[in-house]
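Deliverable D2.4 — example input (structure tokens):
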């Protein structure tokens, strides 16, 4: 690996960072899909207003937020680990660019 061109090494580092970002985005999309599927179950069970009162939107939001927190908590360790990895990768890319005087325009 010592014989690799710095631009090739930078490309590999950036590709690894893109893959990590993709994994993080995939987890966020999975959480969004689960919450979208849950919305019908969060609606009030009764079809007609009880004594002329409409359903309370605040209670719906409370149920939505509590379910979102529960689903996010299930994946929080993955989200935290990927976020830390992404930060380390971005820092390494910045240091690498400085060391080899490679700007963002040259990398493209």
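Example output (designed residues):
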């Amino acid at each position: 690996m010592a014989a690799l061109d710095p631009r090739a090494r930078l490309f590999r580092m950036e590709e690894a960072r893109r893959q990590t970002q993709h994994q993080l985005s995939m987890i966020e999309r999975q959480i969004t899909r689960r919450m979208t599927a849950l919305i019908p179950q969060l609606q009030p069970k009764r079809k007609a207003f009880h004594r002329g009162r409409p359903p309370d939107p605040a209670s719906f939001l409370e149920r939505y937020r509590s379910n979102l927190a529960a689903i996010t908590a299930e994946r929080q360790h993955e989200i935290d680990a990927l976020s830390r990895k992404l930060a380390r990768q971005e820092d390494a890319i910045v240091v690498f660019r400085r060391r080899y005087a490679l700007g963002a325009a040259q990398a493209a």
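Residues 6-42+57-107 form one domain.
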